[in-house]
Amino acid sequence: MVQAPQCIDSTAPALSRLLARLTNIDVPESSQSLAARLSQWLGWTDAIALSAALNGAPPAVASGVRSFGSAEEHECARVRATLAKTIANDNAFATASPRGSAHRNPQAAPIDATLDYAAFRQRYLAMQQTMETAISELRGRLRRMLAARTPDMARLALVDATMERALGAHERNLLGAVPGLLAGHFERLRQAGQAAPDDAPASVNTPPVTSDFWLDVFRKDMQSVLLAELDVRFQPVEGLLAALHTR
């Protein structure tokens, strides 16, 4: 039986709340400030680089860089929409049938009696790599535009680049653990699905319970986690966009 979800701070990011619900992990609210938690991730070389970026002389304003405009903003929106569409349309997450329908979706991956989690894990990791590459390129592009504005904006671009280098490995390690957390959810759903009879009656509001319905549930859950992770990964881009909008 799938256990009841644990409580988590309602102000936590959607990704944290979703993982807490799916994995039954209790994530208490931290008593430390954001600065204190970040300091645990920074080595002494990172701290020196960040201090220099914050307190040193403002970097020279870059020249010859294309100015920020609607085309760049549209490009940011396009990249995000493309990544979301890639996640939404991936065959690995296509459900076998619409809710309440007996007709199988031909795009859905076939169900195998020996199906294990490895294939889903590899697909999740591939999606993470796609997101990281696209967003890192976009972030660098926005930093170059920011650095061409004013000395203060150039300093902000330098701080963002320093933080990306300092925290990148920690971010990859944390987000890289997400597929492992979902493995337990996969197994719990599979066990519940194997225990459910194929001919369980359906009601108006409840789809028929079949031996493969659990896999549809898991596919949608994993897709939701990826979309929530996309939101988290895009936050630095949103911050740079907000800075570029200032005059």
UniProtKB/TrEMBL annotation:
Q: Which Pfam families match?
A: DUF3348
Family annotation (InterPro entries): DUF3348
Highest lineage ranks of the organism? Bacteria, Pseudomonadati, Pseudomonadota, Betaproteobacteria, Burkholderiales
Q: What's the protein here called?
A: DUF3348 domain-containing protein
Q: Which organism's genome codes for this protein?
A: Paraburkholderia saeva
